[in-house]
Amino acid sequence: MRHKMLFTLTLLGGAWVGVLMHRDPGYILFSYKHLTVESTLWFALIFLFVFAYYLGSSFVVASISSPCLANYG
Predict the structure, then answer these.
(1) Largest CB tally within 10 Å, which of 21, 50, 69, 71?
(2) What's the predicted TM-score (pTM) here?
(3) What is the DSSP string of 18-38?
């Protein structure tokens, strides 16, 4: 029962975010010297989330496989 409720809430939340994305995509402009990057707000947020997840998981894997921890195991 709990899984069905969680699935339903996740589905409704995703639909709500989808409606928000469709109504107002937002706009982000980054500029540095002669380089400019334009994006929608939602794409930039998803990109930053995936990038942060990649960096975090890389850090955890590097920390676990560090030779410094081999002496403590």
Answers:
(1) 21
(2) 0.62
(3) HHHHHH----EEEEETTEEEE
